[in-house]
């Protein structure tokens, strides 16, 4: 009996073992799980200043705490910003789409209303509301060594049906449109893929890896550098505009010839 008693465990031993197992599991999960894109460092002062800007410029539509707002008929006035992350704010405000000038099918690009510092502060406040994609850094935007051929393939499969093969943009339904990608900053293209603004789907890292996104950006940059080797592009919108221009020019020439012949006959 004494031998058995010496092997008897303390009543708290099982609890201690379970607690240690939980701590070890949590540590392993934190070490091995993918880093959340929302883990972005903002100072408390940036968050505080961002909240002031938000209340003054955004709360009318998006609610005082970014929870979104609906009108009396239940129609959405401003969507919830909880969990959209800093990248969504940097894209929407950094391209002038927000604050919206007027209601419409979608926000239009216009001159930017805030300074870079103010945009960063607004991003900081919205990022504090919930985890979401962060603003891409230099490493994510570095296209040196990117595969332009692969980027073109990804673009044609995923983007060309809306933005057109030449990235000139195109019309969608119900008065909406896919904007041109010419003259858009690399950062904003990356953010658009990450956040899916307007009618665009979200291409997170599970759909398109950071390398894939860099390849697409490199391809778009090359498109812009190449320009229009065939001459005037007519907006690079394809055979519709080209055919319309050709018929208009031909009809104008024929009409001019008819008028000239008629005047000569008289």
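Q: What amino acid sequence fits the structure above?
A:
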């Amino acid at each position: 009996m004494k031998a058995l008693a010496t092997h008897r465990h303390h009543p708290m031993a099982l609890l201690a073992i379970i607690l240690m197992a939980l701590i070890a599991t949590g540590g392993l999960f934190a070490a091995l799980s993918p880093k959340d894109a929302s883990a972005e460092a903002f100072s408390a002062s940036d968050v505080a200043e961002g909240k002031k800007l938000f209340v003054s410029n955004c709360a009318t539509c998006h609610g005082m705490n970014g929870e979104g707002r609906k009108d009396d008929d239940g129609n959405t006035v401003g969507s919830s910003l909880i969990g959209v992350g800093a990248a969504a704010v940097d894209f929407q405000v950094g391209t002038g789409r927000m604050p919206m000038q007027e209601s419409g099918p979608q926000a239009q690009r216009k001159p930017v209303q805030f300074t870079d510092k103010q945009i960063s502060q607004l991003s900081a406040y919205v990022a504090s509301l919930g985890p979401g994609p962060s603003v891409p850094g230099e490493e994510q935007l570095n296209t040196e060594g990117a595969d332009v051929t692969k980027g073109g393939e990804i673009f044609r499969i995923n983007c060309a049906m809306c933005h057109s093969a030449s990235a000139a943009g195109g019309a969608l339904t119900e008065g909406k449109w896919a904007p041109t990608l010419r003259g858009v900053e690399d950062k904003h293209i990356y953010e658009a893929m990450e956040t899916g603004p307007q009618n665009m789907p979200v291409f997170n890292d599970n759909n398109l890896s950071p390398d894939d996104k860099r390849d697409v950006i490199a391809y778009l940059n090359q498109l812009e550098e190449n320009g229009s080797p065939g001459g005037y592009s007519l907006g690079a919108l394809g055979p519709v505009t080209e055919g319309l221009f050709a018929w208009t020019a031909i009809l104008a020439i024929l009409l001019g010839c008819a008028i000239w012949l008629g005047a000569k006959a008289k």
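Q: And what stands out in the fold?
A: Residues 239-265 form the longest helix (27 residues).
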